[in-house]
Write a structure and sequence with these properties.
162 residues; alpha+beta; 22% strand; 6 strands; binds zinc ion
């Protein structure tokens, strides 16, 4: 049996000014999106903003429900909304942030497994990487050049074929 290694590469900074202007704007739109979060159960708000190739920015926030499986994450609201409104557009970048009164979020929030799968499939569909920018309220930023970096061995038909 061979040992295989998976490596992940990403960028980290606590200085938002190191980012290009469009990414600073995207983070700010994600922060604004926190206001529309509906999170009475978890008290954990998530805001996201997706930048399309048209320059349009589509926001999303987590929407909870008393029937827990109905809940949907903020980044999926943004992505699905973008694809529903602009099916021919490509998502270039997405910024995600979170807020809670329960504790200090010092490290950037990471997309859950379902959102990673959704991101990876949209990326596959559009044959163009989606840059993922994660922002913590304390100002720490992680940036990934492609959504697939967040989900090695992504589940999709093309990966299974020879
Ligand atoms: Zn999620």
């Amino acid at each position: 049996m061979q040992i295989k290694e998976l490596k992940t590469t990403y960028y980290e900074t606590d200085n938002i000014n190191e980012l290009p202007a469009d990414e600073c704007k995207l983070i700010n739109r994600a922060i604004e999106a926190l206001a529309s979060s509906y999170a009475p159960y978890s008290q954990f708000r998530v805001g996201a903003a997706a930048l399309l190739d048209s320059g349009e920015i589509i926001i999303g926030s987590n929407q909870e429900n008393s029937a827990s499986p109905v809940c949907i994450c903020g980044e999926r609201v943004a992505m699905f909304s973008a694809k529903a409104q602009y099916p021919d557009s490509q998502i270039l970048k997405i910024a995600i942030t979170a807020k809670t009164d329960k504790f200090v979020i010092d490290n950037p929030v990471s997309p859950c497994g379902s959102c990673r799968q959704a991101l990876a499939e949209i990326e596959e569909r559009q044959s163009l990487p989606i840059k993922v920018i994660l922002y913590s309220p304390t100002g720490k930023i992680y940036s990934f050049d492609s959504a697939k970096i967040l989900l090695p061995l992504t589940f999709n038909e093309n990966r299974l074929k020879k």
